[in-house]
From TrEMBL:
Gene symbol of the encoding locus: pyrC
Protein name: Dihydroorotase
Record-level GO cellular component terms: cytoplasm
Cofactor: Zn(2+)
Domain (Dihydroorotase catalytic) ranges: 47-235
Amino acid sequence: MSEKVLITGVRLYGEGEPVDVLVGDGEILEIGDITAGEGTDVIDGAGQVLLPGFVDLHTHLREPGREDTETIETGSAAAALGGYTAVFAMANTSPVADSVVVTDHVWRRGQDVGIVDVHPVGAVTVGLEGKQLAEMGTMAAGVGNVRMFSDDGKCVDDPLLMRRALEYASSLGVLIAQHAEEPRLTVGAVAHEGPNAARLGLAGWPRAAEESIVARDALLARDAGTRVHICHASTAGTVELVKWAKGQGISITAEVTPHHLLLDDSRLATYDAVNKVNPPLRETSDVEALRQGLADGTIDCVATDHAPHAEQDKCCEFAAARPGMLGLETALSIVVRTMVEPGLIDWRGVAKVMSERPAEIVGLPDQGRPIEVGEPANLALVDPDASWTVTGPALASIANNTPYEAMTLPGRVTATLLRGRVTARDGVVRSKTDSEIGG
Ligand SMILES: NC(=O)N[C@@H](CC(=O)O)C(=O)O
Ligand SMILES: [Zn+2]
Ligand SMILES: [Zn+2]
């Protein structure tokens, strides 16, 4: 019944001789020298690299509540165009995803759209208020099968509450992801605390606000015997602390965003709030440490922290603007620029940090799988030699707040397959009903 797709002359993980890959019934059926059968959809993979579909542990889709900036549908389109086959939608929506009603809605809506698996992230605390634990067990037991909990946007700063959350997570077998920001150290803060912020007269967000929570949570995870996941690591000190904790045998994982791998706080000189993000863009020494940490495995994976914001929430005074930037469609290209081009990782490494490790961290059995016969056909096809120029309005997201406006970036996702179905191809999204979305 389902259509077969044949990707011809492609190099798996960018390695070895080109092969043909036949996909059908949601699986990889055959790898080798294959002649297309009648009715088979053929994708010319010559010169291209085949990778497992990407998994984003950190996405903001804004539905419910801010559908003027992104919906599950438009965010799914952006994800498919970016090579993603699964994304985790953070809980800081309105209403907050702190109940099974909301988390199940997000899952169902994602499945209805059907172009990427949208996994709901449940809130750790009711209303993200940091006072009372949300009903994690009920959310985990829902249709949405919530396996990650986070108050992202806010830090679970109360150490006792964080300790309890980790204990519950342990018995439920779910992951707690922490937005590490000691709020007492970031009152009014809008930019990385350093010479640039001082010169520009912007209130500083010190590295210690992040690092003190990372250190504390590593110790809490040690005592609870549970894993803690650190969202959007942004400082050299965080890399050192995660390395230390792993060395102690503590169960800790960490992600880095594409923007923290590329950009630094020298961008703030224009006062353009497109560069405002939490945690803030840091210094070149931090960028370098994050790249090294990702290359050596201290930092486990790349996560976009895709954060759409409306024009009126960005085009205002720097201090008043909302933090966050788009990331789904540009992530692969930024990883190519910051990690592949300088020789820090190869395509096998891209598969690891954008697909395999995130799938493992959160326990998704059908994602980040090897490209082998019998495995689920969740795939991203990448043209390593392509380059493209980013413009906000051309992205599938409703919001336009990309920090890469007018930049020409290397590497482009040319096709994405979710369970054997082509969800994006040559910049066009294919919904379940084959109508076009976004663009
Ligand atoms: N990263 C951001 O600057 N903003 C995120 C929240 C968050 O990830 O902390 C958002 O929801 O807009
Ligand atoms: Zn955050
Ligand atoms: Zn976030």
